[in-house]
Amino acid sequence: xxTWSRMDRALYLRQLQVMFEASIxxxxxAAVLAEGKEYGPLVSSKLREVPRDLERGRTLSKSLERSGxxxxxxxxxxxxxxxxxxxx
Length: 88
Fold this sequence. Notes:
Structural class: mainly alpha
Shape: globular
Number of helices: 5
Largest sheet: none
């Protein structure tokens, strides 16, 4: 069972960015990433909540914050991107 490392976070966010730039809907991108088998059951469970939150109308920053997997600085950076309209 793997843990959620800084490298895992960086890779997840980078993959999310690439899919976003490719015009894949954010909730779909998060769902695809959550399907990965690389992480332990607890992390996978939390990652599956991100696309569910997005489908319910929550912002990405709020979804990442609720997961508990991302630091406050990452959540704040995403929130600033959302507010400025420059999420990518």
